[in-house]
Every structure is written in structure tokens, then in C-alpha cells.
Amino acid sequence: MADEKPDLAWRVIGGLVGLATAWVARKALGFVWVKTTGKEPPVDPDSPEVSLGEAIGYAVLMGVGMSVAQIVVNRTAKKRYQAWRSVKQAAREL
Asked: Which of 26, 45, 58, 75 has the fewest Cβ atoms within 10 Å of its own Cβ atom?
């Protein structure tokens, strides 16, 4: 199954799911940052006005949070898509 070339529909769906996941995760993680630190997320973590600890903390939160969100959503979407395709294929065979 790993050798199979993904079909065009899944590539489009996967791309849209990825964009939506990134947007939602960024908003959610920004909300978590504000509630936890009481400050807005740094716009430019490379700026000297942002402390090193804050920049690293924000980078870790965003990196881990975005990766986890992408993995969970992509796996769930792929399972749903494959289930839909198998039902569709079974209906064709009838």
C-alpha cells in the first residue's frame, strides 16, 4: 500500500486539509500562548526585543503543536477518505 500513487482527489483533499489544519492550529496555539503567558505571541522571534527564553518557548510550542496537529488530522482524514473509497468501490461492484 505504501507503493501506491495517491490519486488526484486525495492530493487535493490532503492539501486543503493541510491548509485548514495549519490555520486552525496556529490560531489555537496563539490562544494557548496568550492564556499561558498573558502576552501576545512574538511577531518576530528573531527580534532583540524578544527574550531568548520567550523565542525558544514559542518556537517549541509552535513546532510541536503544528506537527502533532498535522499528524492527527492527516491520519484521520486519510482513514475517512479510504473508508469512503472502499464503500464507493463496493457499491460499484454491486
From this structure: 75
